[in-house]
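Practice problem: predict the structure.
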Amino acid sequence: MRALALPITSLLAGLLFGLGLILSGMADPVKVQSFLDLAGYWDPSLAMVMVGAIGVAGLSYLIARRRSRSLLGLPMQLPANNTVTLRLVLGSAAFGIGWGLAGFCPGPALVALGAGYPKAAGFVAAMLAGMAVFEWLERRSGPGSVLKGSQRAS
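Answer:
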């Protein structure tokens, strides 16, 4: 039973995350784009979702910092690097532009794909293509390039 604890916990966390995305409207690209449209019909409701998420994440991080093992007994792995690099800034900008144009980010796109949104299929295909291009560029880039600007998680 202990061997199943991690997969079952991961499945339940993913289901809870997906349900939260659906209930909050984060899986609806029109709602997301309305939130990002400050010059038009701005819908501030997703700001409350973000405030709630930041609060939960902040509290969880404070608790996790005091622990050496997770609730499942695994080693606690928290980021050690807090350096802002050009790679981080460019990646954040690309993410924000994509989010604003499509109304999706990766998690909500997968939820919307499962819910049958046709636009999500195109976004997920483009996202996978972008990931493949990144991996290709990452392998080709030299040690001083923007892509090698920070440590990659293995």
